[in-house]
Amino acid sequence: MEIMFLKGNGIDASGMLQVELTRSLPQAALANCPHFIFMPEHYREDNTCRCNDKAHKEMKEWGYKWKSNRWQ
Predict the structure, then answer these.
(1) Does this model's pTM top 0.90?
(2) Dist. CA 18–CA 57, nearest whole Å
(3) Where are the domains of the chain?
(4) Per residue in 10-53, pLDDT tens?
(5) d(CA 68, CA 26)
(6) Alpha carbons 68 and 30: distance in angstroms, whole number
(7) Which residues contact 29 (CB under 8 A, 6 or more apart)?
(8) 1 falls in which pLDDT band (50, 70, 90)?
(9) What angle do CA 61, 56, 53 make, to 5 degrees?
(10) Residue 47 carries which DSSP code?
(11) What is the spatial distance between Cα 33 and Cα 40, in angstroms, rounded to a whole number?
């Protein structure tokens, strides 16, 4: 099963919301993340999560702390 991430592009003349697919991920990619983070930018191109990426500064913004070589 694939999880689709969409971005809204506004409303067209008929009143319909226009959306664009920004990324899709296999459900297993989300399930393999220890924090089950549902943000597409949290995943690398190979669909692995970035919980072990110290440069992933959004984790700090989200309240996680770097400890034992991973965000916790």
Answers:
(1) no
(2) 31
(3) 2-52
(4) 998 999 999 988 899 999 999 999 999 999 999 999 999 999 99
(5) 27
(6) 22
(7) 3, 43, 47, 48, 49
(8) confident
(9) 135
(10) S
(11) 12
